Amino acid sequence: MSDATGPRSSGADSLRPAGTIHDLGYKRYVGARLASSTRWLVVMKNHIAHAWKTWWRFKSSLGLAVIVTVIAGGVMFLLQDRTVKGVVLPSGIAATLTDGTLPRSIQWYSRVAFLVSLTIGARVVAGDVQSGAFTFYFARSVRPRDYVLGKITGQLVLVGMIYLAGPLMLAIARLGLADSTDQLIDLLPVIPKALAVGALGTLAFACVPLGFSAIVHNPRYAMALWASYYLIVGGMAWVLSRVTDSGVAALDLAASLDRVAFWLYDLELVWGRAKRIDPYVALGSLLAHAGIAIALVVWQVRRAHLRGIGGAS
Amino acid sequence: MSEPLIQLEHLTKRYGAITAIEDVTAVVDGRIIGLLGPNGAGKSTLLKCLLGLIPYEGEARVLGLHARTHGAEIRDRVGYMPEQEAFLSGMSAVELCTYAGELSGLPRTEAMQRAHAALYYAGLEEKRYQSIDGYSTGMKQRVKLAQALVHDPEILFLDEPTNGLDPRSRDEMLELIEDLPIRRSCSIVLSTHLLPDVERVCDHAVIMHHGRVRFVGSIDELRDTRGRDADLFVEVKADAARLADVLAAAGATCNVESPVALTVTLPLDATTDLVFRRARDAGLQIRGLGVRRETVEAAFLRVIGNGDA
Question: Does the interface predicted TM-score (ipTM) exceed 0.90?
């Protein structure tokens, strides 16, 4: 149904150009409204849907994660008898590719997660500040905690698809390559270990870029800041740790995650960045990074909420 | 009896040493209410208080709900069209409006249907799938109106809705604002600096100055606060200057606009009869006489001026 009303016909009003108002038939909404405690779910779904909309934001990275999984799985299956360089069992014997590929693959998933953090995570809060989206949110029954929870869980889901699904499939493949039932039973802990490493990587690579996006108000600067921290500060920390023989290399997120992965899988690194980090320091670094990042997001969103909407007063 | 739209009791809002709103008590009701005031008058702060977004002293109720304790509920029943851009980058108009509906508690299917209807109503039917990033100023204003409407609010807060619009778009926006209370049974609070917009669409006004409310009432009351129809516009067949002289001698204040027209402010206790009598005595023929209504702009300046005094 559509109808039109012209301008009011009195006096000077008749000189107005005739605009046309269309109406599809208005009806007052009488249904129940969803509880305000569910707003974070709406924010989360929108975050995921927005990421999924274009190929470059998330789909391309997910494709790379699939390629990593296929290649790692192929290496585990085809090169079972070969040993992996630089990785040994606690006994000092070189680990086979079958055992070493799963923790080794984490560094490749980290590279893919870093791409996702650039295309999505590091832009979130800064982009919303720049576009005035907080006015859009807070003029509705959205609380700061709904926004923070929605964005963080949305980002966790996206990064989790990379860090959890791939390693979990590789862990299942590892079980499939067991020589006997006894070995299969012995190997069962690889599943929770894969999930634990994946969860830790998901937490770090979902939250830390969000934290950087809360520091500055321009999404490009936020991306640059996060990339600089990840690539340059991480690299410098590693060099510094070599010179000072300290655990400062734990500032390198990917190396810390590697260290935790090899530690959980009872494998020792002969060389590499991760070798210099104590596993507990690595674990603490990842959790501290995530915690600080969440605090930064909460701080920035609360500031935006306190500023309120409308003009500056 | 239904609750008034807005009730304020000793509302005060301070930002540190600065008092943005000072001890405001008022009951605001109407169909389209103009919220007027110069920059820094406290209009935006009042809107923030009414939406329950900032703490304040005193009481503020919207639709009978306390803004301090029922902010979320109020925001579900109020639509807000901000002055500045408040979009999410990379979204189309229909995605944004659907999201807005969902964030206000509508189920997704309902939100999507209402998003299409609101965009159609706002005049964006053919452009609703395009990204908002590429919209013109006029189209962005329409999207802002649609996103404020999508969750079926009972009150709309419109902050400078005609800012930056060309004359035609401004005209169409004002037509929509006039139409909304009729078609959608919602009231509108129109915060604007453009007094001709208020004159055209508003039936009530709230005037703020220096954090205080200087006037609350209907537009007619605003214009008629002097209590009588003392300002006249008079047309004569000829020699308006002579009529001005004889009326001035009787205590009126006159201003000759043309050889055949003048404006007259009558002295206290005088009526239009004075004009007719003096014109007859002077042998002048009156062709027209009307009450010169004060414009909203003049009334606004008068109210603000009184405030300063």
Answer: no
Token duo for residue A71: 């290649």
Q: Which one, of A83, A95, A214, A200, lies nearest residue A144 by Cα?
A: A214
What pTM was estimated for this model as a whole? Answer: 0.84
Report how far residue B44's alpha carbon sits from residue B20's, in angstroms, rounded to the nearest whole number.
10
Residue of A nearest to B15 (CA): A313
Per-residue pLDDT at B302: 83
Give pLDDT tens digits for B285-301.
Answer: 999 998 877 788 888 88
The pLDDT score that the predictor gives to residue A308 is 66
Q: Does B100 touch chain A (CB under 8 A)?
A: yes
Token readout for B259 is 């050889």
Write b or e for each residue in A113-152: b if 16 or more Cβ atoms lie within 10 A of its Cβ, otherwise e.
bbbbbbbbbbbbbbbbbbbbbbbbbbbbbbbbebbbbbbb
Do the domain assignments include residue A47?
no
Mind telling me how many Å the CA of B246 is from chain A's nearest CA? 33
| Predicted pLDDT of residue B145 | 94
User: Can you say how many angstroms the Cα of residue A213 is from the centroid of all Cα atoms in its chain?
Assistant: 13
What CATH code is carried by the domain that includes residue B45?
A: 3.40.50.300
B196 and B240 housed in the same domain:
no
One domain, residues B157 and B279: no
Q: Which of B277, B282, B242 is nearest to B259 (CA)?
A: B242
pLDDT at residue A231, rounded to an integer: 93
Contact yes or no for A136 and B100 at CB 8 A: yes
**Domains in chain B, number:** 2
Q: Which domain holds residue B32?
A: 6-222
Mind telling me how many Å the CA of A53 is from chain B's nearest CA? 10
Residue B206 lies in a domain: yes
Q: Which of residues 46-75 of B touch A (CB under 8 A)?
A: 47-48, 51, 53-54, 71-73, 75
- Tens of pLDDT, residues B175-206: 999 999 998 889 999 998 888 999 899 999 99
Question: Hey, of B104, B193, B203, which one would you mutate to test binding to chain A, going by the most A CBs within 10 A of its CB?
Answer: B104
As a whole number of Å, the end-to-end CA separation of chain A is: 44
Identify from A15, A20, A21, A142 which residue to disrupt to test chain B contact, counting B C-beta atoms within 10 A and taking the largest count.
A21
Q: How many CB pairs under 8 A join A and B?
A: 156
Per the CB < 8 A criterion, the answer to whether A190 and A101 are in contact is: no
Report the percentage of chain A scoring pLDDT > 90.
64
Domain assignment of residue A71, yes or no: yes
Q: Where residue B266 sits, what CATH number does that domain have?
A: 3.30.70.1560
The per-residue pLDDT for range B55-105, each reduced to its tens digit, is: 899 999 999 999 999 998 999 999 999 888 888 888 999 999 999 999 999
Asked if the Cβ–Cβ distance from B51 to A17 is below 8 Å, we say: no
Considering CB atoms only, which of B45, B75, B107 is closest to A140?
Answer: B75
Q: Which domain holds residue A217?
A: 54-307
Cross-chain CB nearest to B53 (options A5, A50, A308):
A308
**How many Å apart are CA B87 and CA B115, to the nearest integer?**
15
A39 lies in some domain = no
pLDDT in tens, B236-268: 998 999 999 999 999 998 999 899 999 998 887
Q: What is the pLDDT of residues A190-201, one digit of tens each?
A: 999 999 999 999
Q: Which residues of B touch A311 (CB under 8 A)?
A: 43-44, 83-84, 159
